[in-house]
Structures are given as structure tokens and as C-alpha cells.
Amino acid sequence: MSAQAPVDRATDRSGVWRGLLVEYADRMPIGPDTPIVTLREGGTPLIHSEFLSELTGCDVHIKFDGANPTGSFKDRGMTVAISKAKEAGAQAVICASTGNTSAAAAAYAAKAGLTAAVVVPKGKIALGKLAQAVVHGATVLQVQGNFDDALDVCRDLADRYPVELVNSVNPYRIDGQRTAAWEICDQLGRAPDLHLLPVGNAGNITAHWRGYREYHADGVIDSLPLMHGFQAAGASPIVRGERVTSPSTIATAIRIGNPASWPFAVAAADESGGSITAVTDRQILAAFRLIARNGVFAELASTASIAGLLRMHEAGQLPRGATVVCVLTGHGLKDPEWAIAGAADPTTIPVDADHAARVLGLA
Ligand code: AN7
Q1: Rounded to the nearest whole angstrom, what is the distance from the C-alpha of residue 8 to the centroid of ligand 1?
Q2: Comparing C-alpha atoms, which of 362, 339, 234, 355 is closest to residue 292?
Q3: Which ligand 1 atom lies nearest to the CA of residue 95?
Q4: N or C: which end of the chain has fewer CB within 10 A?
Q5: Distance CA 168, CA 282 (A)
Q6: Is the CB of 20 under 6 A from ligand 1?
Q7: Residues 40-84: pLDDT tens digits?
Q8: Tell me, what's the pLDDT at 4?
Q9: pLDDT tens figures, 229-269
Q10: pLDDT at 21
């Protein structure tokens, strides 16, 4: 055994998920000498929702990507981007982020022994995400501007200084994020009819569509889903057809006014026969609460997919009996503030079971 335990590419017989670069090695841009930097991301649950199925008359499944090691889908792209950065001999990586990318970059850079710097919009990222960047030892810079400004700074830095950019403009990020589509097909045994997800910088919808198309071209699936992406109404440049200079939404993860993968997102919606539309903050918050009451604590922004599902249902846009997958991209613990907001304080009781029983209405 070497001191630094390798990821067993072939010898791990435990049946435990080995991470994306091993599980999907044949579809990944890696060679035998690529160092595999993994936290065993991917393999996230596809959860059947009886509640949403009954409500909509469809067969609704939730792809819970909040179950990734750092609590969001960003790990899928980061295992590839950081592995390739390490292979190329990079010492330092940088990214702009609304929070989840920076959390993933910090964690994977730490695992790889690389230095990470993250640039975030000042005061606009959830506390849990900031905590992740800090605890993993990344240098955090808060920019006086929004995400789009932060990305401009990072692109400029990577152009002129020796740092590797690991935002989704880095093609390895998109390569890794294709795996969500493959997992969904592998888990369902087919492609869904409709694939619903939140859209921010638009890397994920781009990656998922590529993933489905590749599986289709290779004959793994025999149909393609309609891709329906949802932006927050106050940060919906693709829907409006113009850059939003001051994006505004409570869903800070998707508070983005000039998405880097804009044209690819439009292509995904158009080519698949789907759409990119907006959901309001109110609809997102209602969806967040609804899905939590059904057992899944997802990050607020990620529940734009559920808000979109409900809106399409109310508008009569869901074909009866369709197989639908809603992607929940992040974990609710990233930002517990939205769970607690408006809730009553827990009742304080003495150490007395009878007292507890009276409060609970059992006695
Ligand atoms: C939970 O972390 O852009 O459309 O900097 O955190 O691929 O950008 C996060 C985006 C959806 C949107 N859901 O995905 C970042 C960042 C959650 C997110 C999105 C994000 P993209």
C-alpha cells in the first residue's frame, strides 16, 4: 500500500460508489496517469415523489444532488476540473461563485494539495457556503459587485496570472456535470420525458443536455427529455433576452445576470423542445417549503425546479403520465435561515415526560 491511498480503479469490490471519474471512466477525459482527485461524489439518490406524482398526474422523481460531498452538484464538475489542473501541474485555482462553486473548489483543492482563492459577491452568499470555503483553507475575496463582476475579475486574473480558472467556462467542469444525466438514465432505466432544473450561470443545463445526447448517440437511451430550465424572475436574463445588470432574488445561488453558458442553455431548450422560463421568489419559497414537508431539505435556489413543475402543472403543460425528473441541486443546510424564518421558537419544557405529553396533546 502506498502512503497516499489510491482510488482503486478496479480492485474495490465493496459495492460502494467510487466517485465519478472511476464509475464513468470510459466517458471521462482522463488517462491512466491522471491523478484522480475525488471525494466520491455522484451516485446521488433519485427519489420517487409520491406526493408530487399524485398532485401532477405524472411520475415525478427528484434527483437530489444536495447529497454530494460538499452539498451541491458542483462536486461533479470539480472532481474533473481539479484532477486535470493537478495533472497539468497547476499550483493554484481560482473561481467566482455565488457560494457552491467556491465550496466545492475549496474542498477539492484542499484534497489535491492545491491553493484555492475564491471571489464572491460581498454579503450575498449563504453562511454555510462561506464557512466551507474558509474551513477548507481557501482565500476568500469579497468583491464589491455581483457574481458577474466576480467572474470578470477571475477571467482576467486567469488570463494574466498563473492560476487555473475552475468556473464552468472551464470545459472539464461541464464534462463532469454530464454525469447527472447519465445517473438519472441508469437509475430510471430510460431517459425521463421531462427534465427540470434551476438555471443560473447555465453550465448545468448545458452539461445535462450534452450528457443525454451522448447516451442517446451511443444507444444507451432511445429517447431524449424536454429540457425545462427555470431562472429566478429577478435574475432572468435568458427569459428577458438581455443582460440583467442588477439581478435580485432571495435565491442567491442563481442571482446571476449574465450567464456564461447562455447560448448553450438556449440551444438545450430549443433542440429538446423545452423552455427556459422564470419563477418568482414567492413560488420558489413555496416549493422549498412543500418539498421539505415531503422529506427533502433542498437549498432554496434548487427548488426553482419544483416551483417550475408546479407552475407547469397549473398551466396544464404537463402531459399526463409523463416521467419527470426535477433536479434539486443543493442541500438545505447550506442556508438554514430560510427554514427557520417565520417559524415559532421551540417550546421549552422541564425534565418531565408528563409535561411533554401534555404539550404534545398526548395526555
Ligand atoms: C444550488 O456556485 O453559479 O446554471 O457560483 O448553486 O449551472 O450555474 C451556483 C449555481 C443551481 C445554477 N442551483 O447552476 C456558483 C453558482 C444551485 C447553485 C445553480 C447554482 P448553473
Answers
A1: 31
A2: 339
A3: 5
A4: N
A5: 28
A6: no
A7: 999 999 999 999 999 999 999 999 999 999 999 999 999 999 999
A8: 44
A9: 999 999 999 999 999 999 999 999 999 999 999 999 999 99
A10: 97
Say how far apart CA 85 and CA 344 lie, in whole Å.
48
Q: Are 35 and 300 in contact (CB under 8 A)?
A: no
Best residue among 64, 73, 95, 100 to mutate for probing ligand 1's pocket (most ligand atoms within 8 Å of CB) is 100
Packed helices 281-292 and 304-314: angle between N→C axes, nearest 10 degrees:
100
